[in-house]
Automatic annotation (TrEMBL), chain A:
PANTHER family: GLUTAMATE_ASPARTATE IMPORT PERMEASE PROTEIN GLTJ (PTHR30614:SF42), MEMBRANE COMPONENT OF AMINO ACID ABC TRANSPORTER (PTHR30614). Keywords: Cell membrane, Membrane, Transmembrane, Transmembrane helix, Transport. One of its GO terms (biological process) is amino acid transport. Residues 29-227 form the ABC transmembrane type-1 domain. Gene3D superfamilies: MetI-like. Signal peptide: none annotated. This is Glutamate ABC transporter permease. Its main location: membrane. InterPro entries: AA_ABC_transptr_permease_3TM, ArtM/GltK/GlnP/TcyL/YhdX-like, MetI-like, MetI-like_sf.
Automatic annotation (TrEMBL), chain B:
This is Glutamate/aspartate import permease protein GltK. One of its GO terms (molecular function) is transmembrane transporter activity. It comes from Bradyrhizobium nanningense. PANTHER family: GLUTAMATE_ASPARTATE IMPORT PERMEASE PROTEIN GLTK, MEMBRANE COMPONENT OF AMINO ACID ABC TRANSPORTER. CDD domains: TM_PBP2. The chain crosses the membrane at residues 24-46, 67-89, 95-115, 160-180, 200-219. Residues 22-219 form the ABC transmembrane type-1 domain. Part of the ABC transporter complex GltIJKL involved in glutamate and aspartate uptake. Probably responsible for the translocation of the substrate across the membrane. PROSITE patterns: ABC_TM1. Gene3D superfamilies: MetI-like. Signal peptide: none annotated.
Length: 243, 230
């Protein structure tokens, strides 16, 4: 392979004047994590609401939940980001559209919101499955104790369901981190974006992508380990995984 | 709200969008699903083969691929494939690989990791008695897999495999980062040429949505029809 390896490239100053190439990649990593964190908060909140709606004894709520999930699941994430980024400001009333377009950090907010809503549909499906996996008796017992529907969800169903779906939620969180890379298309300089621009500035393709790969693997390992601890901590006594 | 939109731009771009763009997207989806399934099944068989080293290699490959963003993998292969080609053919310079070949290789390698997990679950869902019965009948390992285990595993997992293919169909839009003219790429090129981003992206969204919706509706029908009654 006639490729000029130069692993020292990471310690050379980058052309942006923001330190070395390594600093550039690390700033990308920080942006990836920030975007993913905000997106995950959005995904958890809206996903939980929609997931609960799909299990409520109301036809309207069920239908809304179904439509919501189908809407966000049947379009590529890239197309959804374009809709948020290019299309939404044009369809809003003029003043709102101009305000949106002039937001500082527009790619960051768009990416967080776009990835967040995309993932919320997946969270909703997981939560629905989690609630569905509980024995019927739990809901009945909650009703028999005189809890309202809201109280039943708050004190009985959700604390159980969330602990049961913790492992699949971990992989959805990892997917959220990975999906932020799609935001490179709307100009967000997250980890993949920074690796790409490092490659364009320095022509050291494989060093740049190797570093990005290692950083993604590290993040993955940290998240998986942290979630293992969380899983053990919240395990339900009496279940196979419990204490 | 829709007052100053010009939907005629879509009608004029239709031939380009579908003949160039959608053909690319669907060919890529189909071939990548097929290649990913074959390679993924091989990975699953390696993992379940009982040979520690083979299983370990397949496991590391699958975990590795599944922890990277697809966009990064697309970039990796786009730059790596010419060098691999040079190494394989012994040429003196990195060979040039077309956009289609490059993205096809990427998606086969990437999707194989996901397909292998599905096939692994499928193979493990076959009861232990079946391969035992097969070897009692004198079938070799290859024959057992070919005639007994894989057909059932494939059938059990067909809905999941198709669902993964729908995900793949949506993911192929990411070749956009290489400026390839797939369906979204074509839409985006027209959008930028005519300054009609809103119309073109809305149209692309509707097309992806319709195709994925019909396909996932089909999966639900199929699931009900082919379920083996035990």
């Amino acid at each position: 392979m006639n490729y000029n390896w130069n692993w020292g490239i990471f310690f050379q100053p980058n052309p942006m004047g923001t330190g070395t190439y390594l600093d550039m990649l690390l700033s990308g990593l920080v942006l990836t994590l920030k975007t993913a964190a905000l997106a995950w908060i959005i995904a958890l909140i809206t996903g939980s609401l929609v997931g609960v709606m799909r299990t409520l004894p109301s036809k309207g709520a069920n239908w809304f939940g179904f439509a919501y999930v189908e809407f966000f699941r049947n379009m590529p994430l890239l197309v959804q980001l374009f809709l948020w980024f290019f299309v939404l400001p044009e369809l809003l009333p003029k003043a709102a559209g101009i305000w949106l377009k002039q937001l500082p950090n527009a790619p960051f907010w768009t990416a967080a919101i776009g990835v967040g809503f995309f993932m919320s549909a997946r969270v909703a499906v997981q939560l629905q499955a989690g609630i569905g996996s509980l024995p019927r008796g739990q809901k009945m017992a909650a009703t028999a104790l005189g809890l309202t529907t809201a109280q039943g969800y708050r004190y009985v169903l959700l604390p159980m369901a969330f602990r049961i779906i913790l492992p699949p939620l971990t992989s959805e969180f990892l997917n959220t981190i990975k999906n932020t890379a799609v935001a490179i298309t709307i100009g967000l300089l997250e980890l993949t974006g920074q690796a790409r621009s490092m490659q364009e500035f320095s022509f050291q393709v494989f060093e740049a992508f190797t570093a990005a790969t290692i950083l993604y693997l590290l993040v993955n390992a940290v998240v998986v380990t942290a979630m293992r601890f969380l899983e053990r901590w919240v395990a339900i006594p009496g279940y196979i995984t419990g204490k | 709200m829709f007052g100053n939109l010009d939907f005629d731009v879509i009608r004029r771009a239709l031939p380009y969008l579908f003949y160039e763009g959608m053909t690319f997207t669907l060919t890529l989806t189909g071939l990548a699903a097929l290649g990913g399934l074959v390679f993924g099944t091989a990975l699953a068989l390696m993992r379940l083969s009982g040979f520690k080293i083979l299983g370990r290699i397949a496991g590391v490959y699958v975990d590795f691929m599944r922890s990277l963003p697809l966009v990064l993998v697309i970039f990796w292969f786009y730059f790596l494939v010419p060098y691999i080609g040079q190494w394989l053919t012994g040429a003196s310079r990195p060979i040039s690989v077309g956009a289609f070949a490059s993205s096809l290789i990427t998606f086969i390698m990437f999707e194989a990791a996901y397909f292998s997990e599905i096939m692994r679950a499928g193979i493990q869902s076959i009861s232990r008695g079946q391969p035992a019965a097969a070897s009692a009948l004198g079938l070799t390992y290859a024959q057992t897999m070919r005639y007994v285990v894989l057909p059932q595993a494939f059938r059990n997992m067909l809905p999941v495999l198709i669902t993964q293919t729908i995900v793949l169909f949506q993911d192929t839009s990411l070749v956009y980062v290489l400026s390839i003219t797939d369906f979204l790429g074509a839409a985006s090129k027209v959008a930028q040429r005519d300054g009609r981003l809103v119309e073109m992206y809305l149209f692309a969204a509707v097309v992806y949505f319709t195709i994925s919706c019909i396909a996932s509706f089909g999966v639900r029908r199929l699931q009900a029809r082919i379920a083996i009654i035990r």
